[in-house]
Protein 1
Amino acid sequence: MADGVTIKILGSGTSTGVPVVGCSCDVCRSTETRNQRSRCSALLSWGGYHVLIDSSPDLRQQCLSHGITQVDAVLYTHNHADHVHGIDDLRVLNGSPDRPLAVYGAQQLIQHLSSSFRYAFESQSKVGFRPRLKGVVIADTLSLFGRKIVPIRLLHGDETALGYRVGDLAYLTDCSAVPEESVARLQGLRVLVIDGLRFRNHPTHFSVSQAIDFAQKLKAERVVLTHLSHDVDYRLHQQLLPKSVEFAYDGLIFCNRRSSRS
Ligand SMILES: [Zn+2]
Ligand SMILES: [Zn+2]
Ligand SMILES: [Zn+2]
């Protein structure tokens, strides 16, 4: 599918990653590779371009594991550390070294990045080997390398995060509710990747059942739960899910069905 979009789950884990340091529960001690979850991130690819969603603290290892050597843009969801703190590793990934790498996000996110990681955004810097980044505030739908990227506003507890839709794929991590205007942007999905942290409720994340309820209202054909905690045992719990729903794991990849551009 030369013209299609693929999405690869680079990290399917919650903010601690799984195994959790110091934890000796069955999942953290499991040898099942699908229970070993790096911090949440994904890679969209089409037409030879690679667009990273978030720079997790595990970005370096994710690149080594999946043979990623360049990215052409970064879409950020929000400014929590588990989605941002691999930002320095972007220095070796810029696909066009003569230009700064464009990083996209909501205004608050771009402000946060450019103050917290100022050395990466300054045009003149004494720091030699550094990421050279250009922040771009997302106002609404944007076009990237011939594809339409639709930002999806999400509620993440008292804060907001952005999800992204490309064609009939949508990636919605870190959310506890989806406003009505965003629901309207999520019709006709083939693949929905969505936050499904754990079975118990959580103030800032959908639980597994809340995510499934929401996805079923949308009638998404395939639902992939991500940002998973160590409460989720892949083999044990996968079999309890409805047929169209699955747990994400690091390295899971899928592509859109339609080859037409949208
Ligand atoms: Zn997170
Ligand atoms: Zn554990
Ligand atoms: Zn978060």
Note: The chain is about 20% helix and 25% strand.
Protein 2
Amino acid sequence: MTLNDDEKTLQQAGIRVTAVRLLIWREVRQRFTDAFSLADLEQALPTVDRSTLFRTLTLLVEAHLLHDIDDGSGSQKYCVCPMADTRHCGGHVHVTCTNCHRTFCLTDVPIPEVPLPAGFRPLEAEYVVKGLCPLCDRHPLSR
Ligand SMILES: [Zn+2]
Ligand SMILES: [Zn+2]
Ligand SMILES: [Zn+2]
């Protein structure tokens, strides 16, 4: 992907491209293969102020380029939609490791459909499994 592709992705998602938005989107897409928090992004981009980061993340979520996840950690997590440059994928399952507290994206595992009673209309779903990641499962005390 070139810089132009990133610009095109933002445009196609209906986002007005600015230098800082492009910077944030590139960083997010290149750096994070699993879920990340605002604090993780702050660490990665110390020159951009927190409110700009937060507003841009919200914008990217609304444009379906990012997913937002509540993994029970108390801080909102985000991940890049695996189909960001084509269309929103409908979500994937996440696993939160209760030992190292990382949240992993299972981008190949779609969220199972839940049969809702008549009258309820699902709009979106979130599916977070709590457990141990492979590393912590082998070495339970490591962090
Ligand atoms: Zn998606
Ligand atoms: Zn772990
Ligand atoms: Zn994810």
Note: Strands lie at 36-37, 66-69, 77-80, 92-97, 103-110, 128-131.
